[in-house]
Amino acid sequence: MIGLLSATVSFGALLYLAALGELITEKSGILNLGVEGMMAIGAVTGFMVALETNNPWIAFLAAIVATAVFALLHGLFTVVLGAEQVVSGLSLTILGVGLAAFLGKGAVGRPPGAVLAPVDWGPLSDIPWVGTIFFSQSPVVYFAVLAGIAVSLLLTHTSVGLALRGAGESASTVDAAGYSVTAIRLAAVAFGGAMAGASGAYLTLSLTPQWAEGLTAGRGWIAVALVIFGAWRPGRAAVGAILFGGLLALKTRLQTFGVDLSPILLSMLPYLLTIAVLIVISIRARNRPSAAPAALGQAYRREER
Fold this sequence. Notes:
The protein is mainly alpha-helical. 69% of the residues lie in helices and 0% in strands.
């Protein structure tokens, strides 16, 4: 049971990082369905840089930067050129997954060059149950917690957060207030890519230190669903991440409890729950205002004065 709960926190952090990035992107009014492709780029970049440098932190930062730059392709087409956001996002996923598979061909089956070892919290790590679950995790788990707090404070207590939310609600109002909607949205898209890259790098540098084609296994789509599940709020998205993280952990732990289920069925569970949650949310949303940003998915063109 302790192992299951510890794995739940680990997988929850994986999903939460990507969901936080998507949340900020959508708060600015840009829908990015390329999270799966961005996670794949982050995963392969982190693993390959670790092979070359033997330094997991350099690899982690390289994955963040590379994926932020990759995400700006989506920003170029949707923010600057006003392209259809759904099409651009799906194209980013296809490109990212394919490019990651191509770049990582030589790394398949190779042992990791470096890993992000769990943080040693001293006496805290020795506390029964609590120590194993919360104080024996990868540093990326604590990074995810800090990132969630920072995003929450940014959105609710800063002028930057107000401008960001304004860009997703009424871009023309933000423009009239003297802010650049283009700059805000591009920064949000880059941040979303950076967080997806951090999530992907966490996968190959800590959670499952290896590289193989298809390693992200649809987790980017769960992250997108988490934003909706959490009603575009970091705190509620964290609850959803733990819930879905538990299902991902359960998939690898049920057999140790003597439960003999088909591996295919176990692999389907998180995605079946994702579909079920989205259906329930859609039904409930029929008779109440949507929590989504009002301008989500809408391109903005500044009117000439």
